[in-house]
């Protein structure tokens, strides 16, 4: 059944990639009122946000972000301009000769992160750690889309690619909230009201290789722009640095975070 559903999902994604963006948004948006009311767990999280986010507005944003990811996976132009805060920092880190650990989370158009020119032109191998999708067929389709641009996808069983990252001085991109397996520990945000998975063993292993460390976030901005932001992260306080930068990013664009992900929990604050 998962293979069948995965095949249908791939067919729908390929079809969506061929449609003009406005048409794809209109068709998908027409179905959202039939879908959003039944996403009970996500609706509870959205109500607990301060200020709360409306379910339809949230799912319209998820649809928009998904279509951008599909365009990236299939090699089609998305029509968005890139605005990069900290690009000089990223460039300096890439020229250091040391392995680079890039820590992010699923907010905004994350599939566009590895398409930034500074990364593409550095000559560094670029590795992305991924979790499995609900279907192997869909997971492989997503992996092929990433690998088409030169990214090396690190599947859960491919530990040899992690060693290659350290040996070759590459860039290792880790989405801290959506890594393979059960959460080992959690990162507490929003004054303890929110928990996201924290891949402690993976990050500790990577930090032992003495990499340069950057935190990266992405969001859709006005004027058809994708805004990327790079910031320094210290090895001795990596978890705290990520927490502070993620709190700030969530405050800027809470509706662009993937609240649908089951491993993320958001509890109501004491005042309601």
Structural description of this entry:
With 272 residues, the chain is an alpha/beta fold. The chain has one domain. The protein has ten helices and ten strands. It has helices at 2-18, 21-35, 40-48, 55-73, 87-94, 117-120, 136-147, 159-168, 200-207, 238-252, and strands spanning 81-85, 100-104, 126-129, 152-154, 171-175, 185-189, 194-198, 212-221, 225-232, 265-266. Strands 1-9-8-2-5-3-4 form a seven-stranded mixed beta sheet, with helices on both faces. β3 (126-129), α7 and β4 (152-154) form a beta-alpha-beta unit. α1 (2-18) runs parallel beside α7 and α2 packs across α4.
Quick one: overall form? globular
Mean residue pLDDT = 88
* First-to-last CA distance: 41 Å
- Specify Rg, calculated over alpha carbons: 18 Å
Structural class: alpha/beta
Number of domains: 1
Strand order of the largest sheet: 1-9-8-2-5-3-4
Beta-strand fraction estimate = 15-25%
Helix proportion range: 40-55%
Number of strands: 10
Sheet of most strands: 7 strands, mixed
Order of helices and strands: HHHHEHEHEHEHEEEHEEHE
Uncertain runs: none
Tally of contiguous helical segments = 10
Supply the key terms:
single chain, three-stranded antiparallel sheet, 272 residues, seven-stranded mixed sheet, alpha/beta
What topology emerges from the helices and strands here?
Elements: H1 2-18, H2 21-35, H3 40-48, H4 55-73, E1 81-85, H5 87-94, E2 100-104, H6 117-120, E3 126-129, H7 136-147, E4 152-154, H8 159-168, E5 171-175, E6 185-189, E7 194-198, H9 200-207, E8 212-221, E9 225-232, H10 238-252, E10 265-266
Parallel strand pairs: 1-9, 2-5, 2-8, 3-4, 3-5
Antiparallel strand pairs: 6-7, 7-10, 8-9
């Amino acid at each position: 059944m998962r293979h069948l559903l995965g095949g249908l999902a791939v067919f729908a994604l390929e079809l969506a990639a061929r449609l003009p963006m406005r048409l794809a948004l209109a068709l998908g948006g027409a179905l959202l009122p039939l879908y959003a009311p039944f996403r009970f767990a996500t609706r509870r999280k959205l109500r607990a946000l301060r200020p709360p986010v409306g379910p339809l507005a949230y799912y319209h944003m998820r649809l928009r972000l998904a279509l951008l990811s599909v365009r990236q996976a299939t090699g089609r132009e998305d029509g968005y301009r890139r605005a990069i805060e900290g690009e000089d920092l990223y460039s300096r880190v890439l020229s250091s000769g040391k392995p680079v650990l890039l820590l992010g989370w699923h907010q905004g158009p994350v599939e566009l992160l590895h398409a930034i020119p500074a990364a593409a032109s550095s000559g560094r191998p670029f590795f992305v750690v991924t979790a499995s999708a609900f279907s192997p067929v869909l997971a492989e389709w997503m992996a092929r889309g990433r690998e088409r641009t030169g990214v090396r996808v690190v599947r859960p069983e491919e530990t040899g690619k992690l060693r290659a990252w350290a040996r070759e001085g590459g860039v290792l991109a880790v989405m801290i909230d959506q890594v393979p397996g059960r959460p080992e520990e959690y990162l507490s945000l929003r004054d303890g009201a929110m928990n996201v998975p924290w891949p402690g063993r993976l990050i500790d292993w990577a930090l032992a290789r003495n990499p340069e460390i950057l935190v990266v976030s992405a969001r859709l901005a006005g004027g058809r722009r994708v805004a990327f932001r790079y910031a320094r992260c210290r090895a001795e306080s990596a978890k705290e640095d990520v927490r502070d930068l993620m709190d700030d990013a969530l405050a800027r664009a809470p509706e662009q975070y993937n609240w649908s992900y089951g491993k993320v929990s958001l509890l109501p604050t004491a005042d309601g």
